[in-house]
Amino acid sequence: MLKLQIREKNGNINYGIGWTFRILYLLFAIVILIGAYSYWNDQSTVNGRTPIAIAVILLIAGAYQEKWSFDKRRQLVTYRIGLLFLNRKKVIPFSQIEAFELNHFKKGQKAIDSKIKSRANRLYTTFAITLLTGEKHDIEILRHKKSAGRTEYAATTIANYCGVSLYQDLEISDDDE
Length: 177
Hints:
By secondary structure, this protein is α+β, with helices and mostly antiparallel strands. The chain has a domain at about 65-175: PH-domain like (Roll), CATH 2.30.29. It is about 30% helix and about 40% strand. The protein has four helices and ten strands; from the N terminus they run E-E-H-H-E-E-E-E-E-E-E-H-H-E. It has helices spanning about 20-40, 50-65, 145, 150-160, and strands at about 5-10, 10-15, 65-70, 75-85, 85-95, 95-105, 110, 125-130, 135-145, 165-170. It has a five-stranded antiparallel beta sheet, sandwiched between helices. Helix 1 runs antiparallel to helix 2 (about 50-65). It is elongated. The two termini are about 20 Å apart.
């Protein structure tokens, strides 16, 4: 699962996939290509394109980007998703943002309604932007246990930075997981 990281850069806040993700996949691709090359040098025949296919998949995975940028100076939120230069961009002015929301739920029900503990009823945390039009954009959906408070910290930091209110449905303790 990809974990989004919060970072401040040039007075802006960026919330997205870190460079360690890209570097890790690039290193895996290089190791696989070196292994394939050494195998092909030792063999008289070239059989199997599997290492090349795996390396290409790893390079594509390393080129994946998902980033939310919050620019207080220009009063804009920019969302980018896709491969490095082949991506989709959505821009939302601060004036269109009603609030940021931080919700917790168990699949199919609100967290506060469920007391049954099982693998199917794991607690999730959702961080989203709600616009004045009622439209909602999910920034992150993550298992509460994996979030370890990072999503809550990011939501609070971003809401304070943007000067927009943050609505939370409830406070969750570790016993609820």
